[in-house]
Batch of 2 targets.
Target 1
Amino acid sequence: MVAGFWGTIGLAFDLTGAIALATLAIWLWPRLDRFGNAGVWIVSALFITAAWCLAVASASGVFVSSVAESARNLAWLMVIYRLFASDGRHATVAPIRPVLLALAFVELLHLGVDFGLSRVAFDSSVGRVAFEFNVMFRLLVTVGGLVLVHNLYAGAPREVRGELRWPATGLAVLWAFDLNLYTIAYLAARWPVEIAAFRGLAAMVLTACFAMATAGNRDALKLRPSRAVTFQTFSLLVIGFYLVAMVAVAQWLSYAGGNFARLIELAFLTLASAVALVVLPSRSLRGWLKVILAKHFFQHRYDYREEWLRFTRTIGSRGQTSQPLGERVVQSIADVFESPGGLLLTPGDQGDLTLAARWNWPEIEVPAVAFPLRALAFFERTGFIADLDDTRAGTAANSSDLEVPRWLLDDNRAWALIPLVHYERLVGMVVLDRAQLARKFDWEDFDLLRVIGQQVASYLSENASQEALAESSRFEDFHRRIAFVMHDIKNLASQFSLLARNAELHADKPAFRADMLVTLRNSSEKLNALIARLSRYGNGAVDKLEQLPATDVLETVMDRFRSNPQVVLAEKREVAITGNRHSLEQVLVHLVQNALDASEPESPVFLSLTVEGLHARFEVLDSGCGMSADFVRNRLFKPFVSTKSGGFGIGAFEARELVRAMRGRLDVESREGLGSRFIVYVPLAAATDVYQNMSSQDQKVA
C-alpha cells in the first residue's frame, strides 16, 4: 500500500515534469538563437528528458527507463559541451573532451550491462551485485556531470556568467538529486521508492531554470503579487490554519476528554467560533495584517499604481451624486492612511485658515480662525508635515518654529497636519482623523503625502482660478454693458454739442428750429431705446424682430447725414426685410460715420441697398485709408481696441453683434490705401416666412 502511495505521487510529478519540459521545448524551438550554437541541443535534451519522465511514469520496465535515463544524460552532456564551445573554452580547457568521452563511455557500458541482464536470468545474489554495479555507473555519471557544470559556470568570464547561471543551476539540481538518490540506493542496497517519487520535481526545477534563462526579460518572470492578492491569500491561509487548528484541538479533546468528550468538544467549537466572529471582521486586525504584509513581503509600503488610481478616481469624480471638491480632497488623502475622517482648512479674507470642508468628522469643534496667519509662514516655506503625536510629546522636528493651534492639540483624534503648497504658496491644510491602527509616519509616508499634497493643491488652485474666472467674466459682461452705454451716450452727447454750437449761430432761423426739434426728438427716442436695451447689451440681442421696408431704414440714415455731401446713395431697392429698425439704423450710422472718419473730406462714401439671394444687402463703400488683413482678422471686432484717440473700440463689435441678433451677418473687405467695403446682410421677409413654414411643417411631421 505504501509503494502504491509513493507510486501515485511519482506519477503526478513525472507527468507534470514531462508536460513542462515538452511545453518549454516547443516554445523554445523558434527562439533557438537565444542559446547560440547550443540551442538545438538544448531543445533536443528537453524533449529527451520529457520522454524519460514519461518512461518512468508509465513503468514500462527497468530496461526502458534505464535507456531513457542514459539518453537524457548523454543529451545534457552534449549541451554542456556546446555551452563550453559557445565561449571557446572547449579548445583551451584540455580535459573537457576526455571527461565527456569517459562519461559517454560509462553510459554506453551501463546500457550494455542492462541489456545483458535483461536477457539472462540470475539468482538473487548475482542480481544484487548487478544492482550495485548499475548504481555505481549512475554515480560516476552524476558526479562527472556536476564537475562539468561547476567548471562551466565557475570558469566562465564574468560577463558570460549571467547567461549561464540558470542553465547551470537547473543541471546542478537535476544531477544533485540523482547523486543523493543513487547514494541512498547504494547504501541501502535497494531502490528508495520514497525519494525516487520526487525525480519529476527535479525535472520541473530544471524546466523553470531554463525558462528563466530563455526569457528575454528576466524581470517578467518574477512573481509580483499585488497587495490585494497577497492580503486575500494571507487571509485565506490564516482562516485555513485556524480551521485546521480548531479541528485538531477538537479531535484531541474528543480523545482526551473522557466521559465529557462530546460536551467539551462542542463547547470549544462554540467558543472558538464566537471568537472568530468577533476578531476576524475587526478593522484593527485587517490594518495590522496589511502593515505586517507590507513590511515583510514588499519593498515599498504602498502600491503606488493602486494608490494613484484611487486618488484620481476620488478627486476627479463628478456628477450629481459626487461630493463637493473640498470633501473629495480630504477623502483622497485620508484613504491612503485608512483615516476615517478629516478637515480641509483654506485661507479666508484675512489670510488665516478657516474651515472649508469636513469629511466624516462632524463632532470636532473648529473655531472661526482655525489657523492664525502668523503660524502659516513656516508651513508655506518648508512644506512640513506635522505628526501631531510628536507635537504633543514635544519631539517634533523644528519644534521651535512649529506653532499648532491649541484646539488641534487638545483633540487626541487629530493625527496629522498636511500643508497643501502650490508654487510656494499655501492654498490650504488637511487635518486627518486618527486611524484605528495608528502608527508612526516614516520617510515613505512623508514622500507620498508631499506628492499627494502638491497634486491636491493644484486641484484647489485650479478650482479657485475657475471661480475667479467666472466672476471676472460676470464683471466683464457688466463692464461691457457699461461700455456700450457710454458709447451710445458719447454719440448722443456729440449730437447735443453740435446742436448747441449751431443754435448759437442759427437759432433765429425757422428751418433750423424745425430741424432742431427733429434732432431732439430722435435723440430722446434713442435715449429711451438705450434704457430699454440696457438689459440685453451683454449678448447683442435686439428688442424684437419685425417686417419693415428696407428703404425706410436707408432713408433715415441718409437724413442723418443730409448735411454732409460726402454721403452718396448709390442704389436702392424696394424690399421688405425682417429685423429691428433701431438696431439696423444704429449699425448703418456707425459704419457710415467710420467711413467718413477714414476718408478725406472730398472723398465720397457710397451707401447702397440691393438684393442678394435671400438677403437684403446694405453696402457702405469708402476710398479711405483702408485696413490690413491682420487688423481685420484680429483687431477690428475685438472689444476695447480702437485706433481713434479717445475711442472705446466697441462700435464694430457692437454692430456685428446686433446684425447677428437679426439673423444676418457683417462682412468686411479692405485694402490698405484703397479703402474698405462693409456689407450688412439682413434676411428678406419672404425668406423668413419660408423658414417659418418649413419649421412648422417639420414640427407637424414629428
Target 2
Amino acid sequence: MRPSSGLPRCGRRCPHSGGKSMRCSSIPPSTASPSMSWMRMRSGYSGWVSLSEVDPDEEVQGEIHLCVELLEGEGGQRLRCTVLEARDLAKKDRNGASDPFVCVSYNGKTQESTVVKKSCYPRWNEAFEFELPDPPAEKLCVEVWDWDLVSKNDFLGKVVVSVQGLQAAGHQEGWFRLQPDTAKPREDRRRGSLGSLQLQVRLRDETVLPSCCYQPLVQLLCQEVKAGHQTGGVHLVTLLDETTTAESRQDVAVNLVKLFLGQGLVKEFLDLLFELELAKPCEPNTLFRSNSLASKSMESFLKVTGMQYLHAVLGPTISRVFEEKKYVELDPSKVEIKDVGCSGLHRVQTESEVMEQGRQLLQSYLGELLDAIGKSAPTCPPVIRAAFRQLFQRVGERFPQHQHTQFVAVTSFLCLRFFSPAIMTPKLFHLRDTHADARTGRTLLLLAKAVQMVGNMEPAAGRAKEEWLAPLQPALQHGASRMRAFITRLVGTEEEEEGGEGWPCAPRAAVVKEGLLFVHKTRGKGPLLASASKKLHFCLTGEALSFAKSPGVERCGSIALANIRAAERVEEKSFGSCHVMQVVYVDEAGQQETAYLQCKCVNELNQWLSALRKVCGNNPQLLHAYHPGVFRGDKWSCCHQKDRTGPGCGQTRHSITLQDWSDPLQPDVEAQRLFQHLHGLQEPLREKYWQLMEAGGAHDGPRGCGEGPPLPLVLQRLFEALQDLERCHRQLPPAAPAPLELQT
C-alpha cells in the first residue's frame, strides 16, 4: 500500500480551504488515502489448475527477526547471528500453536536454540557465534522447527543469508520471510490425479489521491445530476451509458451509486436515469428488462442500501426451508418416488401424491414470504421507498394508459432483481453461511420462480411456458393481488424525512454491520465491556461500535471509531474457541483496552474484521503491532512476554478488507475508479456525442477541422478534470511492482 504523499500540483481549488487557492504538492500522510488502483492493471491468471498433494516442507508462513554481523577478535573474524523473535508461524499442533526452536548452521556446524512452548510468536533473544574460515563459507542457514515429543519435528521454514553480502555491509538486521525447503529431492507426482480447479485471478493496483484532487470530477457529475434531463441536448449520463461495455457496466453502476450516496444525490441520480430510459422508444412489457445503466444502477442501489431489509423479509422463510429440508417438486419429469415414502401404510407414494405434497409445501413457503413482504412497507428504508415512488410516478407519466405497467416496473427490480436472486443463492446475499444441498436448492429455485411469477403480475404467462405450474395458479393469482396492494402502500406515503436533501440518513450514520457476538472475558482487570452479559448485539456505523443486550433496545455503551486502534484475529488456543477477534481501543480515561468477541463462523469473522478495518482505516493512531494471544497469569499466551503493556509480537493488517455490498461509503475510492473508467473513454465519448447529435438532426455537417459546433461545455470540463487527474498520477513517485503469486 502506497500513501499519496508528495503529490504533484493539480492546479485546482480545494473545497476545504475556504475558497483560497490550495496546491496538493504537500499532503500530510494522515490525509492520504490508502493505495487502491491506478492505470496499471495486470492480466492476472485465468484457467484450470491441476491439484496435487501438498508437501509439508513447502507450505510455510511467517517471518523471523535476525541480526547478523561480523566481529573482529584476537583469533580472527567471527560470525554472530542473533535470533530475536518470530511471528505468524504455522500451527502444527492440535492446540492451535507450535513449539518452535531454531537451528543455525554455518560451515558444517549447527547450533540450536531453546524450545518455546505453545507459541506462534516466540521470542528467543539468543546469539550464536561461528568462526569465519578463510575463505569464508558462502551461506548462513537459519531453520525454524516445531518440536514434537513423539513424532518427528515439523519444518516451519528457513532463511539463507549471504555472507559475501554481509562482508560488504558488516551488519544486517531485519525481518526475513521464511522460505520453503526446496533443496530436498521430490518425488514426481501425478498431476491432475486429485482433480482440477478453475481459477480467475486479477490483481488491481490503484492509488487514491486526496479528496481535493477529485472535486472537479465529482462536482461536474453532481451538477449534471442536479440539472436533470435537458430537451434537445445529449446528457453526460447518456454518453456514459452508451460508451460503457456490458462487462464493465455493473462496476460503473456500483461506483456511481456509492458516489452519489455519499453526495446525498442518489434519488436525483436514479430519477435522472429513469427519465432518460423512459425517453427512449420502449414497450410497456419490456420496460427495464435490459441490462442498461439504469437497470444496473437500481439493482446495485438495492443491494447497497437494502441488505438489512432483505434479511428481515427473507430470513425466516429461508431458514425454515434449510431446517425442514422437505422434498418439493412439481415437474413430473423430475419427481423421484423413491425419495419419499409413507411408512405407516407400507407403500410408496404415487407421483400425484408427491406433487400434491410439494405444492402444499411450496404454497406454504410462498404464503409466509408474501406475508412478510406485505407487512414490510413501514420498515423498508425511506430512501428505497422514495426511489420506487419516483419510478412509479415516471412510468405513470410515460404510459398513462397502462397503469399495470407502474406496478410491473417496481416488481421488475424488487422481485426479479432483488428478492428472487437472494432466494436462489442465499449465501451470496449473506442469508446463509453455506450453499444449499441439492434438495434444498431445488426448493429454493421453485420458490424463486414463484416469486418471479408473482412479480410479473401475470401468472398465466408463466403457466403457458411450464404447464406443470398450473396447480400453483390460484396461489400465484392471489399473490399478485397481494403484491399489488403492497406496492400501493410502499409508494403511496411521503416520508417525513424527505425534504429534498437527498438521503434521509447521513451516510456516516448508516449501519455498516450488526449482529450478535459472544464476549470473552479475561482474568483480572482484563478487557471487559461495560456489561455483565456474555452475548451482546453489536452495531457498527460510521461513527461508533455500539452494543446492547438485544436488537432494538437501548444500547449499553459504545466505542467511538476514532478510539479504535486495531481489529485483528485471536489465536484459537487463547480461549479454546475459534472465530474470535479482538478490538483494541482507548477508553475515556485514555487507557488502552481490548474487547475479545467471538463470531459464529469464519465468514462472519472475516466480514466483521473487514468492516472494522474499512471504517477505521483513516484513524491517525492505528497500531502497527499487536498480541494475537491474551494476557493470562503473568504473561502473553502468544510470545510469553511478561510485560502486559509491551510491544506487540504480530504485525497488524489494517489494509486487508473484503469487497462486498456492505462496504461503507468511500467517495474518493469511487471517484478514482470512475476516473480510471473514463480515462480510456475520451475518444469514444467524443464520437458518441457527435453520433447522437447527428441522429437527432442537430448537426448535419462534417465534424473535423474545427467545422461544426464545438464540443459542449460539460465534455470540455470533463476532459480537463480527467487530464488534471492523469497529470497528478503521472507525477507520483513510482512504486515498486509487487510480484503476482498464485498458490493452490
